[in-house]
Write a structure and sequence with these properties.
mainly alpha, two-stranded antiparallel sheet, 20 helices, 38% helix, globular
Length: 522
């Protein structure tokens, strides 16, 4: 079990506004209100706990991480996962507004936003002073901006709800993506300097530095999202984060993903988890990817579903000697914890009794072979664990700052050799031999996924370094719209730009006649 600060112990507890971990002393309340709960900074910390526990829901079934399957990285080619064809449509970009991934993400995000708005409202309406209130309100506005960042990336045009005390029957109107972007930007710029500089105590919470990183991400994608060049601003923020001395690159690529990863010097923002206290999991890291026989590999106290795997054409992008291949994907013959050979069980007819050997190639999107496809393996799996993992989910890490800065240098016609030096600082831990890229390499326009891409080598490197971290979709869109122009295994280029945004969920349109469907969708 992990050791955490008092704040994180509260954060790891599940429940409503006040978790079972909160000590209410001897007084018993049948209703907690602003007047009888908020008495100290400790009470405020307990109140904001649900704001952060909400993020863990993004890692569950049919939530944020599944959108990695709409890219060149991952796919679910299993008949058992057909589910009305939702995963096939996700990979082929033929999704429908009624598909549950969209409504589930929407509900998760707006539930999180509502929690932020509720606590902000309560704190703003206290009739007495509480130490630390202003800083927590700033933190909550940044936490809310993070949700809107996710919504802006996924749907673009969404309602902005920034208050809790709305009238009965209130229905929010759609705001244009430009307005949503501006709301995120102002929420971050207005609050960054009010946040704590302490990254240790504020692990798992928004502080000055991970808020700056979120703003840098926003600026990096500004041109792709709203046609506004903000690369210089992104570069400045990256330089500030690097100059802070708060973070360092791990010497081992896998270190940020270890079971006990809360002390990693590379993690900038994480969703804290504990197999005992949270009951949450990183679904793709364990249950949705591994074959049931792998229960014996790790002596697991749970079942496995044999689902998502690597896109074979993506695997072809790894150079010989790149350690990130085996540190990101599980491949080859699988064994039990005692060294015994594991076998297929007949999940797919004709496969029963065959050695469980994960192969690169996948033969069929609708009904791939039982052992076909490399499996997700970036996060360490602790022996004997249950479905709930002990690893904290890495939402932001320091290596990304190097990549963002390098990309900004290239896009502003800066020194390409400087950009290469930044990328090489990250790459060197992945190779025993020659690992260096040159500025000339990064400047090349090359074929990526069958389409011409400026700075294509950098796009490929983004993919290898950050595969399975939920960032690939924005990367492909940012580089010459490779998301819809590119071709990869089981995916043909649609060349339909409107697919860069997901449809507003049909269930939300039916419930709110003030919402407007995104262009290109009926």
């Amino acid at each position: 079990m992990k050791k955490y600060s008092l704040y994180l112990l509260a954060l790891l507890c599940t429940g409503g506004m006040i978790s079972s971990c909160t000590n209410l002393d001897e007084k018993i309340y049948d209703r907690l209100t602003e007047d009888n709960f908020y008495q100290s900074e400790k009470d405020i910390v307990a109140a904001i706990t649900p704001v952060y526990t909400d993020y863990r829901g993004l890692l569950e079934w049919r939530k944020w991480w599944d959108f990695e399957e709409s890219t060149d990285v991952a796919v679910t080619p299993r008949a058992a996962w057909f589910d009305g064809g939702i995963y096939i449509r996700l990979h082929k970009h033929t999704w429908k507004p009624e598909d549950p991934h969209f409504s589930d993400l929407w509900a998760q995000a707006y539930g999180g936003i509502s929690n932020c708005n509720r606590v902000i409202y309560q704190l703003n309406n206290l009739n007495f002073d509480v130490t630390g209130k202003e800083g927590v309100i700033a933190e909550l506005e940044v936490a809310r901006a993070y949700w809107y960042y996710i919504l802006c990336e996924a749907f673009g045009n969404v309602p902005i709800v920034d208050r809790f005390d709305v009238p009965e029957g209130f229905l929010p109107e759609t705001s244009k993506r430009e307005a949503v972007y501006a709301f995120i930007e102002s929420s971050l710029k207005n609050n960054i300097e009010k946040l704590s500089d302490d990254t240790k105590t504020y692990y798992g919470r928004f502080n000055k530095w991970n808020a700056k990183m979120l703003l840098a991400r926003l600026y990096l994608n500004a041109e792709a999202w709203i046609g506004k060049n903000m690369y210089a601003e992104c570069n400045t923020l990256c330089a500030e984060i690097m100059a802070s001395g708060k973070y360092t690159l791990e010497s081992d690529f896998s270190a940020p993903f270890y079971t006990q990863n809360e002390n990693s010097t590379e993690i900038i923002f994480a969703y804290p988890a504990d197999e005992v206290k949270t009951g949450s999991t990183i679904y793709m890291a364990l249950q949705k990817t591994l074959h049931p026989s792998n229960v014996k590999t790790f002596n697991l106290q749970t079942w496995l579903d044999n689902g998502v795997c690597a896109v074979s054409s993506f695997i072809d992008n790894y150079a010989d000697g790149d350690k990130r291949l085996q540190k990101t994907w599980r491949m080859g013959q699988q064994y039990g914890s005692d060294g015994s050979v594991l076998y297929c069980t007949g999940l797919v007819p004709g496969w029963e009794g065959k050695p469980l050997i994960y192969t690169k190639e996948v033969s069929n999107l609708e009904n791939g072979g039982e052992a076909e496809g490399y499996r997700c393996g970036k996060y360490e799996i602790k022996m004997g664990t249950s479905r709930a993992l002990d690893n904290d989910w890495v939402a932001m890490r320091y290596a990304e700052v190097y990549f963002m800065k390098a990309e900004c240098i290239l896009r502003t016609n800066g020194n390409a050799d400087e950009a290469a030096q930044l990328i090489n600082e990250v790459r060197k831990r992945a190779f025993d031999g020659d690992y260096k890229l040159t500025g000339a390499d990064l400047l090349k326009t090359i074929d990526v996924n069958g389409a011409s891409v400026r700075f294509g080598v950098l796009l490929q490197e983004w993919g290898r370094e950050f595969a399975l971290e939920g960032l690939r979709r924005s990367q492909l869109i940012r580089f010459d719209n490779n998301y819809t122009q590119g071709e990869w295994t089981f995916h043909e280029p649609s060349k339909k730009v409107h697919l860069n945004l997901f449809p507003i969920p049909l269930s939300e349109l039916q419930a709110n006649n003030k919402l407007v469907q995104n262009d290109g969708y009926k």
